[in-house]
Amino acid sequence: MNAFAREPARADVIIVGGGFMGAATAFFLRTHGLSVILLERDLIGQAASGTNFGNVRRQGRYLPQLPLANRSRDIWGRLPELIGEDAEFLPGGHIRVTTRAEDGARLEQYARDCKPWGLDLTMMTGDQARAMFPMVGPDIHTVSYSPHDGHANPRLAAPAFGRAARRAGAQVVEQTEVTSIMKDSVDFIIETKDGGRYHAPLLQISSGAWGRSMAASFGEDVPMAPQGPQMGVTEPLPYRIQPVIGSASSVTEEGVYLRQVKRGNIVFGGGRRSSADLVTKRARLDPMNTLRQMPHLARLVPAMARLRVIRTWSGVEGYVQDSLPIMGPSDRVSGLFYAFGFCGHGFQLGPGVGATMAELIATGQTDIPLEPFHVGRFQRNMEHRDAP
Amino acid sequence: MAEPVIVVGAGPAGTRAAQRLLQAGLRPVVIDENERQGGQIYRRQPENFIRPAEKLYGTEAARARALHADFESLRPHIDYRPGTTVWGVADEGLLSVRGSAITVQPFSAIIIASGATDRIMPLPGWTTPGVYSLGASQIALKAQACAIGGTPVFMGTGPLLYLVAWQYLRAGVTPAAVLDTSSLATRLRGLRGMMSRARVVVNGVRYMADLMRAGVKLHAGITPQRIEGREDGVTGVLWQDSRGRLRRTACDAVGTGYGLRAETQLADLLKCDFMFDRRFTQWRPQVDLDGRTSRQDVYLAGDGVLLRGADAAEAAGRLAACALLQDRTLPVATDEIEGLRGVIATMDRFAGGLAGAFPWPAHLAAALPDETVVCRCENVTAGDIRHAATALDSPEINRAKALMRPGMGRCQGRMCGLAAAEILAAARGVPVEQVGRIRTAAPLKPLPLDCRITP
């Protein structure tokens, strides 16, 4: 088939990048009645969206991000009615645990601070936590419990949104790499490697770790680098661990987390990250990191020491210098929107980002505060710094 | 170069590679997953077992004895690490584990001689207790002096089918039947290539003759239907004969396998380039004649890359060591290399003949009923894989794995991966190489979470 002979495809909105953010935005744009073309280089949800830990966690987030996270949590609970499947979402709670006094004090403070943002946490001593969650180890003292958080399957969530978007009428084009993005006086013009051309007056860039160069092509550079979080999974055992358990340690190596899926396997991650390559599209799993994670996992849940690890993996994720995503309208180009660089904490936000970006693109406004995630924040800081 | 050469595996290929390196003055580290050297075909019985080599290895007793004896003479001069599993690759070195003790071994080069396992074709009932691979049936006999049952059926295809049946017969267990999916006509077509090693063909014919003389029925061109059983084990096999008649053979165990599958995971972790080998209908690392891979410090030998059998593996192990020595500009006689290449060329013709005579019955995977379990670790059925192929639109096996879990369990697809790929390819209507292969990840085998690095 000669793609060059085709008329350019048109839609109200083009989304470049079919990770969780792009797929969810495409789905919600259809609920606003806009026509959508979603362009994905590989398959929907294959990079960070499909390889992350699967945390549906609000506690511990940057406070001004909680309205977005709360909206997202609400959508997680309604996935079956919205997209026809639940992506294995289990709202079994989330506990952040500490072994050091200073980390405990931080948790106490956060629990007080997040209340006005609509998040209620229960603080527990180690013994209280062990009475409720007997798998928790003896070293754990202060514990912060978020009962309505939980976890889901990242391999399923973004593809499920992609299929739902397609069913709702979005044109989802996979295995199509975007080679150029331009704008004339009216439209964005996207060209793809296979010779396709796509036009739309509105454009969202949600290409994860690859978003930087696309934003830079519009003169909006952001300090972001790709890295690979280090994940692993054990053999299955009977399902006993309802909440996600995460260390709140301020020491990088100790910062591991785990969740048990209904099938019985315990998925884990955390600690150091490794390098990732935007060209080969591979993130390295350093097995030395797996070895570093092991004793800390066994400290959170001592019974894990008797298990075997059966697989490890990583994925290419974009980490922004200030650990906050790039989300909202462009600072320079009208009709251009960004949703990328979620710094390893985007999975929970996925549905909320989709709903919020769709609302913003379709109506020009949203009640969710996005200012802290604005692409222009680094530029402004830089100008500020450069001022005499 | 300060860091040692690591040889992974101590079967025929690994042993000969280590021997040749030592001859050149290098002192290799030999990492062996087994507790005793010998590999699979020349697997040694535990220390206190006393059956003679003739009983254990039949016509190959002399070769087995030579390989074992040669290794014993090497052993004081090499760093041999038995019972040790290689599971990962880090910047700091090759990672292995024995029990819970991890070793990080820096290296200047690696020769991988990791061997092969049975190629498995799932079948309704194949997860019933009492169903073994042909290799496991043989290990039971060789290493533990046990049989898998009193009246086993051996079903599948390939020369191992007859060898194992014959070994069972010799051990006093009369198989209920030998059921081969390859037809007599197909086998005749492969015979020309196989005649490059007439001695081996004669041995094979002798095994068949001995079995028939003992009253064991050998059926060709069969189609397996189902393994029947109760909770406590196998009761029989339902199969279709070459004329399409449904038949049932009562038995208390089944040994099954369809040729071999190269153990290529370590080469994959080391990021060697792979290719699809049409002859053996599976993916394997790319190698030159002598075993050089796409990575300058990694060499491959034996059935872990090309399924040419034990005799070829001995030559290939030696040849890979020669290639490594040559690459370090150490002296290697051209005659030696030419001689080894010549041996391997003969074996290669033979292996090609075998692959033609006992082909992998890919069509059986495509025809499996939807409810058949394919990935037994994760309980994924043929229907689940087809669902991944069609409703979930998975164009390749890793996508199908991500969405429906085939190959996600303890064995990481080593057992089910090839059949799962066939089912996916058939459901998508594409050649099997187009659906790719399951990506390898550390650990190569399940790794205890309480393990610790030991110096």
Automatic annotation (TrEMBL), chain A:
Q: Which UniProt keywords apply?
A: Oxidoreductase
FAD dependent oxidoreductase domain: residues covered: 12-360
The cross-references to Gene3D superfamilies, in alphabetical order and at most eight, read: D-Amino Acid Oxidase, subunit A, domain 2, FAD/NAD(P)-binding domain
Any idea which GO molecular function terms this record carries? oxidoreductase activity
Q: InterPro entries from the entry? A: FAD-dep_OxRdtase, FAD/NAD-bd_sf
Q: GO cellular-component terms in the record?
A: cytoplasm
| Keyword field contains DNA damage | no
- Family annotation (Pfam families): DAO
What's the protein called, per UniProt?
A: FAD-binding oxidoreductase
The organism's taxonomy opens as:
Bacteria, Pseudomonadati, Pseudomonadota, Alphaproteobacteria, Acetobacterales
From TrEMBL, chain B:
Q: Which segments constitute the BFD-like [2Fe-2S]-binding domain?
A: 373-425
Bilayer-crossing residues are none
Q: Which residues form the FAD/NAD(P)-binding domain?
A: 5-314
What the entry lists under Pfam families is as follows: Fer2_BFD (PF04324), Pyr_redox_2 (PF07992)
GO molecular function annotation:
oxidoreductase activity
Is-annotated flag, keyword Oxidoreductase? yes
Record keywords, A-Z: Oxidoreductase
Show the InterPro entries listed in the entry.
Answer: BFD-like_2Fe2S-bd_dom, BFD-like_2Fe2S-bd_dom_sf, FAD/NAD-bd_sf, FAD/NAD-binding_dom, Metab_Enz_Cyan_OpOx_G3PDH, Opine_Oxase_asu/HCN_bsu
Q: Does the keyword Oxidoreductase apply?
A: yes
The protein's name in its UniProt record: NAD(P)/FAD-dependent oxidoreductase
Q: What's the source species for this entry?
A: Gluconacetobacter azotocaptans
